[in-house]
What does this fold into?
Amino acid sequence: MSSEAGDAVPPVDMDWLEECNDGDQEAMKAMVALFFSRAEPQLKDLEEAIAAQDVAAVRRVSHACAGSSGTCGMKALEKSWRTLEEMAKQGTLENAASVAAKVREDITRTSAFLSEKGLL
It folds into this structure.
């Protein structure tokens, strides 16, 4: 199986997002808008924490972002954030910059997916 097959998996569990919002399209739009209004500042905080080698800040930001991603059904993002959180728990940020770049890619991919669904 190629890596492209993994990319075919939707970045958002739409069933979960709909269930969390009782199928209300406007509520889903509001949830998604709130998420993305916070995503860029949080990613900036993460990148600054990585540059400063601040393990505690990386753990705090990644934990919060993983939770909000999971709540919104954004599985690809949640997985990347959890990877960063686990790295910080282990006390190492050795590959954190590359994982942060993956988070940025996942945000772009998730945003495009939700735009196609009319939610962003």
User: Anything to note?
Assistant: The helical segments are 3-7, 14-20, 25-51, 55-71, 75-90, 96-116. The chain is about 80% helix and 0% strand. Confidence is low (pLDDT under 50) at residues 1-6.
